[in-house]
Amino acid sequence: MAVDGNWNLTMTTPMGERQATLNLKAAGGTLTGTQGAEGNTAEIFDGTVSGDNVSWKVSITNPMPLTLEFAGTVSGDSMNGEMGIGPMGSFPFTGARA
User: Fold this and answer.
1) Alpha carbon distances (Å) from 39 to 19, 20, 35
2) CA–CA separation, 61 vs 42, rounded Å?
3) Quick one: residue 55, left, alpha or beta (phi over 0 = left, psi -120 to 50 = alpha)?
4) How many folded domains does the chain comprise?
């Protein structure tokens, strides 16, 4: 699947740009993997893939407990979309295959 593998994400947030790593594996319409940032790694959940469209959620504890919701499109070795941060709204993210 086009989304499988390692990705480097850049997320635009209210606290400036944040970097994360992402490891994804698609099986049918299900997307699984891990996402890491600032020394912390978490399993993604509710992951889906449909054609070039991907979505997943990840729970973080730093800088505060939140569930981040990602929805994006994969095009070759790049990915872009929106990251929802609960009550703070949605912000853009980009990804490049590592």
Assistant:
1) 11, 10, 11
2) 10
3) beta
4) 1
| CA 11 vs CA 20, 26, 28, 50, 92: distances in Å | 8, 22, 27, 22, 6
Distance in angstroms (rounded) separating the CA atoms of residues 61 and 43: 13
Its domain, for residue 11, covers: 5-97
Q: What is the CATH number of the domain that holds 20?
A: 2.40.128.120
pLDDT tens digits, 9-42: 999 988 899 999 999 999 999 999 999 998 889 9
Q: What is the pTM of this model?
A: 0.94
Between CA 3 and CA 86 the distance in angstroms is 25
pLDDT digits (tens, 9 = 90+) for 43-86: 999 999 999 999 999 998 877 898 999 999 999 999 999 999 98
